[in-house]
Amino acid sequence: MDKNLLQRLISGFFYGLVIVLCTTPLGAEYIGKVFPDIKQYQLYYGMITFFMLVGIWECIRIMKFGKGWERFAVIPVSMYVFYLFSKRYFMQGFSYNFNLSEFLALFLIVIAAVTLFRFKDELYFESGKLIFTVIYVPLTFGFALGLPEFSAEGYFSLEVFMLFVLIWSSDSFAYFSGRLFGKHKMAPKISPKKTWEGFAGGVILTLILGFFIEKYYPELRGNWMVVGFLVSVFAPLGDLVESQLKRNFGVKDSGNIIPGHGGILDRLDSFIICAPVVYLYFILENII
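^ Phosphatidate cytidylyltransferase, sequence as received from the core. Prediction below:
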């Protein structure tokens, strides 16, 4: 077996294992046998916080922060923003109304993506790098804290795990559909391998998977055919955003924390965009 392939398989296995341990009751049960005082919600919060911190460091590396005050301010500012989201969303459920702060946060994510593609020169300023990093990493991961539905005992349902399943599946479906039928490139300068045929195949097959999740896991929040559609549309966008970020600054990988796969931002580029979108859907579904 090719050494690089073996490395990818091993590191991919451990990455998937971390997701399972930190987002499912089964994982929490196994962790609890070794560390009985650790609760599932602590595992999930710790995982998201770790991903967020590594993501910030990778952004500093990708965007080549200088030695000005922005480089030293980005981590404390990001931690403060993440803390505000933790306080507001984590284990709070969906009993409150959707208000201006959520609209503003989601609008900022859209503005950051538009700036990345249309006004990239703004990101060469140190202040632009700081603002983009704070929006792209802690703001998006902050929304992810509000996705699970917690019980009084600290356990939560499988929304986050199923979101990862849909993202992984959507990516695989699009890849194989593109290999079989792909002719028309989506964004040849940013991601040459993506095709419209692959995108269409990813949408259709992810919708089908969403149907089965909805059928066999009716306790989950929302309609998972809708979630599947949202993931199939926004997961490729998340990949394009991260690819454009690396392209703007001439970087191949965001990092090497996952050998053979790159960095956290490389692995979670789709999750970063899908988490706020799915959170918005859950909120709207709850209100309506």
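Strands lie at 185-187, 191-195.
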